[in-house]
Amino acid sequence: MKNLSLVIVSVFVFLCSCDSTVSPGSNSGRILPNVTGGAGEVLVVMDKFAWESQSGESLQNILKKEIPALPQSEPLFDVSHITAASFDKLFRFHRSIVLVTINKTREEPVIRFRKDVWAKPQIVIQMEAGSNDEINQLIMDNERKIEIFLIQYDRQRLADTYIATKDLEIQKLMSENHQIRLAIPRGYNIDISGENYSSVSTETPDFSQVLHVFEFPAESISDLSTENLLKKRNEFTKKYVKGPIENSFMKTAEIYPPVVYDLLINGKKIVEIRGLWELEKGYMGGPFVSHSVFDETRSRIVTVEGYVYFPNQKKRIKMRQLEAIIYTLQVI
Q1: Strands (E), the chain
Q2: CB of 55 within 8 A of CB of 136?
Q3: Which of 78, 99, 113, 196 is most enclosed, with most CB atoms within 10 A?
Q4: Is 136 or 89 the better-scoring residue by pLDDT?
Q5: Is 193 in contact with 177 (CB distance < 8 Å)?
Q6: Distance of alpha carbon 265 from alpha carbon 190, whole angstroms
Q7: Cα–Cα distance, 113 to 120 (Å, whole number)
């Protein structure tokens, strides 16, 4: 079992330092155009020599890092590269931009994390240094900040959309059955509704995206152990998530050990598990991601999980859509 620690106090917790701050764009006070580009796309504006050198490789190692717990290899982002000479008005409207500049008069390297500079909702990471070696060091020193900034903004864009389009019937279901808020958008259907297990899904002939919520008694926050959470997960999926033949059900795949993160969101400890699922006596499978939280008031653990079935297709976007919903979880 791979355990990682990722503590998130707010969207910008990693970015609060004297030389790396989140700042608004220079266009406040006027209406900005909408961004261009798709979810998960990053535009890098960088000198060709630097892009093909160690600094460009360091940046690509961040942006093209393999996403954990997907059945096929997929990068964090789809990356496009242009030089500053090509960075015209059209490209300035891109949703996520990394702008790298070598300025020989710059005495100290600087990195800035900005939003809504030329369009909205847009994020821009600006890096400037006196040499290519300093740029490379700046990238390596801020690797985690760059990654978190880009990932969280992509997630928040989706979450904002889902909050604005949430299904009120499903919201009522989650509130009454599980005492939680969850911004599930319209387009999902209620499959199972119960006091300790509920399931909603959106399906086409090609894919399924499913969100299910299950809860169980717990004595303390120590019950948020990985072993206990996976044990309970398998108990609920065996009971409620059936395959097409008799005695076929969902279980956690053992071929890929789940990746576990400890998060801190709005002052609450959340355990995030990313892994693969498969069918007992079946050939279906895919990725899942879950958040589990200890509810001290009701002496229970609540788990919200999303999983995808999309055979032979890339699943990054489908999973990120589910993640954005899961990250809206609030116990009420």
Answers
A1: 2-5, 22-24, 41-45, 78-82, 96-102, 110-115, 123-129, 180-181, 189-193, 197-203, 208-217, 249-252, 259-265, 268-280, 285-295, 300-309, 330-331
A2: yes
A3: 113
A4: 136
A5: yes
A6: 27
A7: 15
The tokens of 313 are what? 């297709």
pLDDT band at 16 (very low <50, low <70, confident <90, very high): very low
- Structure-block tokens of residue 232: 């309970």
Distance of CA 328 to the CA centre of its chain: 12
**What residues are paired with 273 via a beta bridge?**
260, 290
d(CA 135, CA 331): 43
Partnered with residue 240 across adjacent β-strands are: none
Q: Is the separation of the CB atoms in 210 and 307 below 8 Å?
A: yes
The encoded tokens of residue 228 equal 């206990």
112 in Cβ contact with 100 (< 8 Å): no
pLDDT on residue 22: 66
Q: Is the CB of residue 280 less than 8 Å from the CB of residue 3?
A: no
Amino acid at 263: L
Architecture of domain 166-331: 3-Layer(aba) Sandwich (3.40)
**Full-model pTM:** 0.90
Which residues, at least 6 apart from 85, have a Cβ–Cβ distance to it below 8 Å? Answer: none
Q: Kindly give the interhelix angle for 316-326 and 143-164, rounded to the nearest 10 degrees.
A: 70
Lookup: tokens for 238? 């065996």
The domain locations on the chain are 13-162, 166-331
In sequence order, which residues have a C-beta less than 8 Å from that of residue 332 and are 6 or more positions away? 175, 179, 180, 181
Closest CA to 179 of 331, 4, 27: 331
DSSP helix/strand/coil, 288: strand
Which of 30-39, 161-170, 313-322 is predicted with the least confidence, judged by mean pLDDT?
A: 30-39
Residue 26: band (very low, low, confident or very high) from pLDDT cuts 50, 70, 90 = low
